[in-house]
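Case study 2.
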Amino acid sequence: MNTYSTPRLLGISDFTPTEFAAAIALSRQLRWSPSPQTLDGKTIVLIFEKPSLRTRVTFEVAVRRLGGWPVLLDECRLGERESIPDMARNLSLWVDGIVARVFSHQSLEELAQFSAVPVVNALSDHEHPCQALADIVTLSDLWDTFTDRLLVYVGDWNNVARSLSKACAFVGLQFRAVCPIGYGPQETEFVDWSSDIAKVAGADVIYTDVWTSMGQEQEYDERLAVFSPYQVNDELLAKTGKPTLFMHCLPAHRGLEVTDSVIDSGRSLVFQQAANRLPAEMAILTFLLERRNEATDQEGRAGVLRRTGHIDHHSLAQGKLWM
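Prediction:
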């Protein structure tokens, strides 16, 4: 999945294109097949710095369906009560995986750096890979191929847009962003983007997200003025020149980034996206834990960790580590 000794998913780039295609296939399979007990006898800790509905519920259900035991740390701020490295080392003694929904991607990277168990990014300010996988699964249900298809993201360039652009590149789906000046991708991200609303022309899918994310509340009035022309409404969809689908990761601020007439219409995929969060997260946990098992088997369950200062939590629990 990546070159790190402990498998992790902090961003879409932690997949290879082949692995991402396999994750799509597994996600679709897990919706209808009996759930494999990949997590039988295993414990996954769920860390939430931010409030959550879809991520909170779907990850707990995913862990349970895979035979595991979820432990919730709700509204737990990383680095507040103790250092992130100490937190990662402690959790590695007790659990088999960490799922974290955080404000800072830097904190998430530090957590993964010092963790001896897989870490999943359930959302950070930089990426939202679980959502992107669910979104591509949703579209793969509708189209046999992504060739000659165009997805246009309209609004604030954020974590969701960033992960989605990378996921589209993996599957050959054309991606374009339409954002206000000053709120678009950085040049180093090499994304096709424009501030011109007319660039939605030809879109097979229009995707949007909230204009003001958590932590940006003080910018609300300013953002409202800047983004109002980018509202996804019937008039904007008419500019595509075709019967265009609509996507949103939710929660939606109805009347702001999208109108009721669009999100409640037959072209809206928002609840299919939400439904696919569950099998997508089951697939991610399955991939990571299977690769974790392969890595530990290859190392002969040595009682010393891969990184200085770590303790193999399984060896400790079995009384195999003498200190």
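The domain at 143-268 is CATH 3.40.50.1370 (Rossmann fold).
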